[in-house]
Amino acid sequence: MSAARLPARIVVGATLLIGLAARIAAYTGQSFSWGSDESRFLGVVQNLANGYFPSGDAEWFGSRIGLLWPVAGLFRLFHASDAVAALWPLAVSLTGVAAAYLLGRDLAGRRVGYVAAALVAVAPLEALVGTRLRPDAIVPSVLAFSVWCALRAGRSGRSELRWAFAAGLLLGIAWSVRENALVVVPILVIAGWGARRRGLVAGVVGAAVVPAGAALLFAIGAGDPSRPLIGAGTEGAFRNPVDAFSLTDTYAAAITRDTFDPGSPLFLLALTLIGTVGVTLYARDRRALLPGVWLLWTAMYLEFGTLFNLAKPVRYLTLCTIPCALLVALAVDGRYAALAPAGVAIAAICALWYLPGRVLRADDSTLVARVADRLRSLPEGPVLAESYTWYAKLTTYTARRRLAIPKVQDPEFLSPVDARRTRLLVPLPSPADSRAGYIVSGPIHPRAGWPSNWDQARARIAAAVASKQLEVVATVGPAMIWRWRR
User: Fold this and answer.
1) What is the mean pLDDT of the chain?
2) What distance in Å separates the CA atoms of residue 277 and residue 282, rounded to the nearest whole number?
3) Gap between the Cα atoms of 164 and 173, Å rounded
4) Residue 30 pLDDT
5) Which residues contact 281 (CB under 8 A, 6 or more apart)?
6) Are 251 and 319 in contact (CB under 8 A)?
């Protein structure tokens, strides 16, 4: 039986399972590189789970309610770990598969919707970021649903106000995950053009709900209602966009360089885009207008709008995944439509095959979570480990008091000398600091993201473990928890 004859819920459900399998295969745990966004996000999440409201300049991103607060709730329910932190971005990332189907179906029919959904399910970049606690796994899916609601508002007649309100509400939710979600406003206006002025007013009202709620929440919890509204603008770093522009550092250059690299999440992307644009222009398919404008507008923002205050990590390209998938699905619509998802699946397998972090997740994600569970059953105390990854994760995940969140600067905006200085951890932890707590020994996998001076701390910790001043209080697989002899 062909997919066209099956109920849509079965086809989309099967596609979601494929997307889930791809994201599980790409799961490497959360990044705890020194000063990384994820490590700081998770520090604030743990503070929230322990009942501490975000405060201070270093915790400005605590106002990203849609990103961090659901994870804090999960930490309260299940305890903190990489896997629990991955549940929220994973769930929302998978809804992007459903959003792609709905948009494709309403633009051109079920077959286009199925292909678009399959492309999003197996796209290498989506699989890689789909379990990371970053906005890149969440914002694109929420925005896609917002665009779909706007499209429905422009076509639905009597129920246009409800759809327009929903589109605005979802835009507000996306804003609460990352502030630059507002860049999609022109696309919402185009998608919902048929709703006219009444729909626009309803959309604005819907979009105001989340910021108003966030302001009220922070007025009660922190006495600062403006914090969620202006926090990102006051804490961000800005630069001259003319000085920041470089042809070699553009997304276009990155896509071109990596298109023949089977280990890159951008593998074959340039060829796919060229082929899709060629077919679309030749066919003059008007159904491609909305996703085409959406992709072009987003690409222009990422290429030029980010020059003011953002670097250009590849993960930002997830904003382009769904409109790109819609264009590809429209371009291949026909007898051989299934070949497009198959090709992307091959690209995903190549990218994941070379993913280095996958071989480390047994130790640096699963085993460290088991150690954290064991530490929670012991009397409270500071934790130290030879592996910086373990030290950072255990310190965060076993915290019962407020964690101090470091204020870091983006190396992108610093001179080379200052950038090297930010790689230093000062002060370094010492075994003497853990006399009232524990030292954990276990598998050690050095990473590029460790502080550049961590070897000094590691040598001191190894010497303490080798001495006869410590005793083992617990063993978890190959890991051992030590404490100072009484």
Assistant:
1) 89
2) 8
3) 14
4) 93
5) none
6) no
Q: Please check whether residue 370 lies inside any domain of the structure.
A: yes
User: Which token pair is 32?
Assistant: 């705890």
3-state helix, strand, coil in the chain (%, to 5): 70, 5, 25
329 and 455 assigned to the same domain: no
Lowest-confidence segment of 175-179, 201-205, 297-301, 353-357 by average pLDDT: 353-357
Q: How deeply is 441 buried, as exposed, middle or buried, from its count of CB atoms within 10 A (0-12, 13-18, 19+)?
A: buried
- Could you tell me which residues come within 8 angstroms of residue 242 by beta carbon, excluding any fewer than 6 positions away? none
Q: Are 358 and 352 in contact (CB under 8 A)?
A: yes
| CA distance between the termini of the chain | 71
| Residue 405 falls inside a structural domain | yes
What is residue 400's three-state secondary structure?
Answer: coil
Residues 338 and 376 in one domain: no
Length of the chain: 486
| Cα torsion 295, 300, 302, 303: sign | positive
CB atoms within 10 A of CB 332: 22
**Are 6 and 423 within 8 A, CB to CB?**
no
439: three-class secondary structure by DSSP: strand
For residues 422 and 333, state if they share a domain.
Answer: no
Distance CA 97, CA 438 (A): 44
pLDDT at residue 335 is higher than 70: no
For residue 227, give the amino acid letter: R
State the angle between helix axes of 251-258 and 289-304 in degrees (0 to 180), rounded to the nearest 10: 110
| Stated pTM of the model | 0.93
CB 315 within 8 A of CB 31: no
The domain total for the chain is 2
234 and 124 housed in the same domain: yes
- DSSP conformation class of 398: T
Can you name the residues that pair with 471 across neighbouring β-strands? 483
pLDDT (0 to 100) of residue 90: 97
Average pLDDT (7-25) is 92
Pairing of strands 383-385, 438-441: parallel
User: Does 71 fall in a domain?
Assistant: no
